[in-house]
Amino acid sequence: MPATMISNFDSASLRHSVSAAEWETRVNLAAVFRAADHFGWNDTVRNHATARIPDAPDQFLMNPAGLGWHEIAASSLLRLDLDGNILSDTDLAPGPAGLNFHSAILREMPDIQCTFHIHPTAGIVVSATEEGLIYVDQGGCSLYGEVAYHDFEGLAEEADEAPRIIADFGDKHAMIMRNHGLLTVGRTIGEAFSFMHRLIDACETQVQLMSTGAPIRRISQEVLEHTSRQMKARRGNKPGGELDWAMYFRLAESLDPSFED
Q1: Which domain holds residue 254?
Q2: On the chain, which terminus has fewer CB atoms closer than 10 Å, C or N?
Q3: Which long-range contacts (CB under 8 A, 24 or more apart) does 21-27 make?
């Protein structure tokens, strides 16, 4: 990929041609990529995160194929409609597999504002186990009842697979795509990021625990349900992860504020 690819985006021009709501969403979504790169969740030019444009809910933003997540900035994100048509004036395009199910989720789940899909190693390991995720600590309890599963069907670029992904999701916010990776959604960017952070933490904990070979001390069903209710009561009906996201955004700024261009 030519080095000039990054410099082709006119940040100043774009910023003055889009709404304030779209620009704010662009900056926050770009911060997702930078923070995720910092945590080592993705080291390729593949995988995706999207965010619905608040004042144009039938449009969304998505990263183009070919940019590393450490390179993505607000101005380099693509604008698309819910049918996957690229509305940005660019020769760049998103990856077809990611576009297929991200656009479908946003189209069929109008309350969802953000989708996030990656292939972290611990997530792939857990996705390839027969049992899937197990809940072994307090942090993992926050995911109890929130994790869906979808069987691997090959590259997720076939149009008829997207409805099956949505059906498998139901009303949950996290999905383990078996033999594939992880997917989260949120009513805000912060909620989707927070669910992904917790899901990766739970997968990493499980992988490390499995590597010891020691018998696993299970949390009882009763305690799992009780702890989950406690956590949901604290959150109420508000999107989760907002305080965490404010901190992660500040982290991204402290690492390299160029994502805001």
Answers
A1: 3-260
A2: N
A3: 21/53, 21/54, 21/55, 22/53, 22/54, 22/55, 22/56, 22/61, 22/79, 23/74, 25/51, 25/52, 25/53, 25/54, 25/61, 25/189, 26/61, 26/74, 26/75, 26/77, 27/74, 27/259, 27/260
